[in-house]
Design goal:
By secondary structure, the chain is α+β, with helices and mostly antiparallel strands. The termini are far apart. It folds into three domains: 5-90, no CATH class; 112-197, Pdz3 Domain (Roll); 203-337 and 348-394, 2-enoyl-CoA Hydratase, Chain A, domain 1 (Alpha-Beta Complex). The protein has a six-stranded mixed sheet, sandwiched between helices. Strands 1, 13, 14, 17 and 18 form a five-stranded antiparallel sheet that branches. Strands 6-5-7-8 form a four-stranded antiparallel sheet. Helix 1 crosses helix 4 (74-87). The protein has twelve helices and 19 strands.
């Protein structure tokens, strides 16, 4: 790098401008914009019976096609139009995914980790960083570390892209090569990696005497069933009298999976209140007769990567005094997305509601404050130190 890393930062405003620019040039060739609008906009809640004026978009394409020195890909322009339109809604959680992106996203939600390099990552301090490397997978073997800023993938600058975009670039066919460049302590480091099938279950348990350490990495559609089986098959046999529920870096998933997990502690009571468009309110209650852990001492580990469905779990357990929350402030994603299928095989992920804890607390933009605050640094992670888990064991 010839310039300092710090000078390469881009603002969130720049990202938004980029998204709008995508819309401005993303009008598709050889098709009628009004036809596209009538088919696509109802998914966003727009009434297409109104006479919307799209002539400026047609004008952009007309000028672009007349003067652009190169070939215009119709499908690519169409995807750009859809992505830009949705991005211009101004909600970071509302997104358009094309057919391939939708397949990858839904596969991940169904517990199919696919092939890649084996990292968990998220936005931290303005950059997408490595949160942890999965044991035994390519990134860990090569020396990628927690805290690394993802700078390039195959020499493409991605430091100003979303984690979803970066993930799509890191995934690929088993056995294929990918070059990952990170920034660590202000210096670039590059790794040539071979993609492998990633083994990353959504939940697993480890044991320290009569203490169970239950780690839930995400909320797939089968996470609740998986955890219930662990509790049924292992906890009683081992005489477990204390549970440490580890939700650190759990970015969420299905609300129903969070409900199923909470049903191990909460019997039939409200675990979530959603308030959506036009003040519509929906209450989610825990399942009945499944609360095998309701009287078991429980500590929940959280950090800045604990978001969405995992915050639903932490918030409900805190409201009902079923657990002590330990760690760092959570992410603060108090919104619910609905997945809407599109006719072209794509997918819309749309924010349709805000959610509240059973006591009516909104955590959106603020997160959940731990009862006991304990920090775990990237240096701790890279040297296998876990002061949060150590503190939980002492409770």
């Amino acid at each position: 790098m010839t310039e300092k890393w710090e000078e390469r930062k881009v603002s969130l405003g720049g990202a938004i401008i980029s998204a709008v620019a995508t819309l401005a040039i993303g009008v598709f060739a050889g098709l009628n914009w009004s036809t596209f609008a009538s088919n696509f906009l109802p998914y966003l809640g727009f009434q297409t019976t109104e006479k919307n004026d799209w002539h400026e978009l047609d004008e952009v394409y007309s000028v672009l096609s007349r003067y652009y020195d190169g070939e215009l890909d119709k499908d690519q322009l169409l995807d750009g139009a859809k992505s830009g339109l949705v991005s211009a809604a101004g909600d970071v959680y509302t997104a358009y995914m094309n057919r391939d992106e939708a397949k990858d996203y839904e596969a991940a939600l169904h517990g199919e980790a696919g092939t890649g390099i084996g990292v968990e990552m998220a936005l931290r301090d303005g950059y997408v960083r490595i949160l942890r490397t999965l044991p035994g997978n390519p990134a860990e073997k090569a020396g990628v570390k927690a805290g690394d800023i993802i700078y390039k993938v195959n020499d493409e600058l991605v430091y100003d892209k979303t984690s979803d975009y970066i993930a799509s670039k890191l995934q690929g066919e088993k056995g294929s090569k990918v070059k990952l460049t990170v920034v660590r302590d202000g210096e670039e480091k590059s790794f040539d990696l071979i993609r492998e099938a990633i083994n990353n279950v959504s939940a697993y348990a480890e044991y320290d005497g009569k203490t169970a350490i239950l780690t839930v990495t995400r909320f797939d559609d089968d996470t609740g069933t998986l955890v219930q089986k662990i509790v049924k098959d292992e906890f009683e046999k081992r005489g477990i009298n204390k549970v440490i529920l580890d939700l650190r870096n759990n970015g969420g998933g299905y609300v129903n999976a969070a409900k199923d997990l909470l049903s191990l502690w909460i019997d039939g009571d409200t675990v979530l209140v959603q308030k959506g468009k036009n003040d519509q309110e929906q209450t989610t209650k825990a399942n009945r007769n499944q609360a095998k852990l309701t009287n078991i001492k429980t500590i929940v580990l959280v950090n800045g990567g604990t978001a969405s469905a995992s915050e639903i779990v932490a918030g409900a357990l805190k409201d009902y005094d079923k657990a002590t929350i330990l760690g760092e402030q959570t992410y603060g994603k108090g919104v619910v997305q609905t997945l809407l299928d599109l006719s072209n095989g794509g997918l819309l992920k749309v924010t349709t509601a805000r959610w509240y804890t059973p006591k009516g607390t909104s955590i959106n933009g603020e997160g959940i404050t731990p009862d006991i605050e304990v920090e775990r640094t990237f240096d701790d992670i890279n040297h296998s130190r876990d002061p949060q888990l150590d503190a939980a064991k002492k409770q």
